[in-house]
Amino acid sequence: MFLSVEDVQTGLFLTGYITDQVTTTTVYLAAKLNKPILLEGPPGSGKTELAYAVAKATNAEVERLQCFEGINEEKAIGKFDEALQRLAVELRSKSGQMDWEAVKEELHSQRFFSAGPLLRALQYKKPCVLLIDELDKVNQAFEAMLLEVLSVWQLSVPKLGVIRAETIPFVILTSNEERRIGDPLRRRSFYLRIEHPTPEREAKILQLRTPKQSPGFHRGMAGLAKALRGWSLEKPPSISEMLDLSQALETLGRDQITPEMRDILLPLLAKTEADRKKLLLRDGFASLIYDARQYSAEATNE
By CB atoms within 10 Å of each CB, which of 29, 225, 226, 239 scores lowest? Predict the structure, then answer.
């Protein structure tokens, strides 16, 4: 997928994803050695976006398995289409030619199987990016099901048989740390800790997305991001939310945030009622702007 570490860095940068040397090197090694990457960190820190950036940089498709409590193997791997199977049996019976063994074999073929993200990821002609998102939401039994895919790149499906990978996907697992991921998956993966970016890096990200704004604007927004994340909000802003705010200010023709803009910007800054009330406290928003200006000095480009 990548020719060198520098190729990774350039490719990710061109997609708008700015990261550090450790991450680019890990991505390169994972691609070369066919190892999954386990990304852990707070929500909104760019874990999921890394998978899409790798896909965009390599012109690959993304197969996303969005995990949730109660997810089962059918959602991940797929299931037989029973309605289509019944229709096939009815058509065969009407034709008067019923070789039950042949029909049974046909009904249990991939022709009648509706593939899920895991199975589809193994069937691409060229490697795709397999994103297994928010793995911390599932239980250990579901984790165990993933081991076959991540160890020997195949899936054993009842009645369908063993499906081996045509190409090995580039796999990214993400976790918001609601539950500790088990050691068997950790052993098979490279591990990266993804935190919210430093003000300096966030300013560079904002510069890529809002190039018409001034460097001072980008530094100010990066400082605001750090200030908001340090305020113990119920819902700290993600990188994408800071991009939304930057684009909103650009649309409004503003090059900085002032205390007087509080009410206009509350819908963009506060995503829960508790956070809204906190920012509405007397001098609360003004204090936030003061902190943001102090932090903006950390965003000065080298």
Answer: 29
Residue range 153-164: mean pLDDT, rounded: 92
Residues 57-76 have a mean pLDDT of 94
Q: Place domain 5-77+116-193 in its CATH homologous superfamily.
A: P-loop containing nucleotide triphosphate hydrolases (3.40.50.300)
Instruction: Kindly report, as residue ranges, where domains of CATH 3.40.50.300 are found in the chain.
Output: 5-77+116-193
- Would you say the pTM of this structure is higher than 0.85? yes
Give residue 159's pLDDT.
Answer: 87
How far apart CA 287 and CA 19 sit, in angstroms, is 30
Structure-token pair, residue 6: 């520098």
| 160 contacts 110 by C-beta, under 8 angstroms | yes
The lowest-confidence range among 172-181, 233-242, 292-301 is 292-301
**What is the spatial distance between Cα 80 and Cα 110, in angstroms, rounded to a whole number?**
8
Report phi then psi at 78, rounded to 5: 130, -175
pLDDT score recorded for residue 163:
93
Confidence of residue 96 (pLDDT cuts 50, 70, 90): low
* Dist CA 268 CA 28 (whole Å): 36
Tell me what the mean pLDDT of segment 93-106 comes to.
Answer: 71
